[in-house]
Design a protein that fits this description.
296 residues; mainly beta; 19 strands; 2 helices; 2 domains
């Protein structure tokens, strides 16, 4: 994938100091080196030329199949203006995993990797040479930033532990668009939202499943976006999966269910006024469990 001359990398230091250098510089504790031919080394180490980019496997799922911490689920999605952080050295996998192992972001997102100090010497290196955090480091608090300008799939590894399954990926793509900006902005972090708004304007009653598969488990509303007419009753039906869920309005809206755990539990609301009603599950909003009802 072509490398833009406007890309920037930033070096984040330990808690004592922070170093930021443009044009592809990286950091590790109190010393760093450039991972880019245009970078500026900040110590006496001689930068090692980037190896020839490797052939990219056709299937991202196949390549991630043996990645530590990857369960084959949907990537964690981030919207515009988000500042995603990937932990380098997830303790539950002996420190040999990225957490989350795969994320989805829109173009111009600044992704940060933070070293946990687990798993020994680590670095972050793209297979196609797009980004490279430089020499390995084991110090907690080390950080590395990269701004992803172009759409595509970026596979990367920690070189010392690649053969042990320390792999990750950043998917860069335009966020879903439904034609309802308020819905799109709200649901961009919902992993099961693809821009579709289910049309139930010809029905007196519409159903939303609570605890559907999505967002890394049974943490989704299905469908996440719904369009109905005034006077329509929307019924939320619980699957009983993944613990307790509820339906709570954003912005002081009318929806406010109890926290329910039993399968076949229900909650209903009749929408009498037009507008866009956004809601979430309070215990799992951070995972992307959000929904929206457009009333026309």
């Amino acid at each position: 994938m072509p490398r833009s001359s406007t890309r920037r990398r930033f070096l984040a230091s330990t808690a004592l100091s922070t170093l930021a250098v443009t044009a592809g510089c990286v950091s590790s504790g109190d010393s760093s080196r450039s991972g880019s031919p245009n970078g500026t080394a900040t110590d006496t180490d001689t930068p090692t030329p980037t190896d020839t980019p490797e052939p990219t496997p056709e299937s991202l799922d196949d390549w991630l199949a043996d990645a530590n911490g990857y369960d084959g689920g949907e990537p964690q999605r981030f919207g515009p203006r988000a500042r995603p952080t990937v932990m380098v050295g997830e303790p539950t996998d002996d420190g040999l995993a990225f957490d989350p192992p795969v994320i989805e972001v829109p173009p111009m997102t600044n992704v940060r990797w933070d070293w946990t100090g687990h798993g020994g010497q680590q670095n972050v290196v793209a297979l196609d040479g797009t980004f490279d955090s430089g020499r390995t480091n084991a110090q907690r608090g080390t950080g590395y930033h990269y701004i992803f300008e172009e759409t595509g799939e970026y596979r990367y590894v920690s070189e010392p532990h690649r053969d042990e399954g320390m792999k990750g990926a950043v998917i860069v793509k335009e966020p879903p668009s439904s034609g309802y900006p308020k819905v799109d902005e709200w649901l961009v972090g919902a992993g099961n939202f693809d821009g579709t708004v289910a049309d139930r304007t010809d029905a007196d009653t519409a159903t939303v499943t609570v605890g559907a598969e999505g967002n890394g488990g049974a943490f989704a509303f299905a469908p996440p976006a719904l369009k109905v007419s005034t006077g329509t009753t929307v019924r939320w039906e619980w699957t009983g999966n993944a613990g307790g869920h509820n339906v709570v309005s954003k912005d002081d809206g009318p929806l406010d269910s109890e926290l329910l755990t039993e399968a076949d539990s229900t909650y209903e609301y009749t929408f009498e006024e037009t507008g866009t009603y956004r809601y979430y599950c309070a215990p799992h909003e951070a995972l992307g469990m959000r929904g929206a009802v457009v009333v026309e």
